[in-house]
Amino acid sequence: MLERSEPDTALAYSRYDPDIRRTISFRLLEKQRDLKLLWRWMNQAHVVPQWKMAKPIEDIAAYIDINLADPHQDPYIGLIDGTPMSYWEAYWAKDDVLGRYYPAEKKDRGWHMLVGEPSFFGRGIAPAVIRAFTRFLFLDDPGTQKVVGEPSVAARRLLRYAPACAFEEQGEIDLPDKRAKLMFCYRERFIQQFGL
């Protein structure tokens, strides 16, 4: 059963979204607080095909440790009205594997995400949280002119949301773990469509 989280003073981003009439927030992942949650999400049937992390909780704990120690990325928990519902990894593209597949600029950012709670499927929530996290990355560093993505070509639902979130397909690339669509979201276009 989902429980509303305690009031959180350590939110990295929080904004009411009038399209879904709910507040979308992000906070840094905390291992002790979020381990069981992330483990449960990684073992959800809808998450396994993309993330391939259906593993024992000890493996997820090690994965969290690696991510928290990695200077090129930060893990976040996404919340809707205070309830945890998604996991995000924000990364600096130039320092990521993806940076070898296109001419990455120093401040290009990217993200990986999963919606862990099936109760949040539908009702326009996924595009809203994608736009919110993309906005967060643009706000987090004014030098970021582009947010990039590399969803699997098999991630049809996510690819369907891309245009509604100002992401433009650049072509397909073969990454070590998947065939992916290279997607760019330019700051200027995002601001024109959604504002900051």
SSE arrangement:
Blueprint: E1 11-17, E2 22-28, H1 31-42, H2 48-51, H3 57-69, E3 73-80, E4 83-92, E5 109-115, H4 125-140, E6 146-149, H5 156-161, E7 168-175, E8 178-186, H6 187-194
Parallel strand pairs: 5-6
Antiparallel strand pairs: 1-2, 2-3, 3-4, 4-5, 6-8, 7-8
Structure description:
The protein has a single domain (14-28, 72-194), classed as 3-Layer(aba) Sandwich (Aminopeptidase), CATH 3.40.630. The chain has six helices and eight strands. β7 and β8 (178-186) form a beta hairpin. It has an eight-stranded mixed beta sheet with strand order 1-2-3-4-5-6-8-7, with helices on both faces. The protein has 196 residues and is an alpha+beta fold. It has helices at residues 31-42, 48-51, 57-69, 125-140, 156-161, 187-194; strands spanning 11-17, 22-28, 73-80, 83-92, 109-115, 146-149, 168-175, 178-186. Keywords: Plasmid. GO terms for molecular function: N-acyltransferase activity. Belongs to the IucB family. This is Rhizobactin siderophore biosynthesis protein RhbD.
Tell me what portion of residues adopts beta-strand conformation: 25-35%
Number of domains: 1
Portion in helices: 25-40%
Sequence stretches where pLDDT stays below 50 over 5 or more residues = none
Radius of gyration: 16 Å
CATH fold assignment: Aminopeptidase
> Strand order within the widest sheet?
1-2-3-4-5-6-8-7
CATH superfamily: Gcn5-related N-acetyltransferase (GNAT)
From N to C, what is the helix and strand string? Answer: EEHHHEEEHEHEEH
Tell me the overall shape: globular
CATH architecture: 3-Layer(aba) Sandwich
Q: Under the CATH scheme, which class? A: Alpha Beta
InterPro entries: Acyl_CoA_acyltransferase (IPR016181), Acyltransferase_MbtK/IucB-like (IPR019432)
GO biological process, one term: rhizobactin 1021 biosynthetic process
Protein name: Rhizobactin siderophore biosynthesis protein RhbD
Pathway: Siderophore biosynthesis; rhizobactin biosynthesis
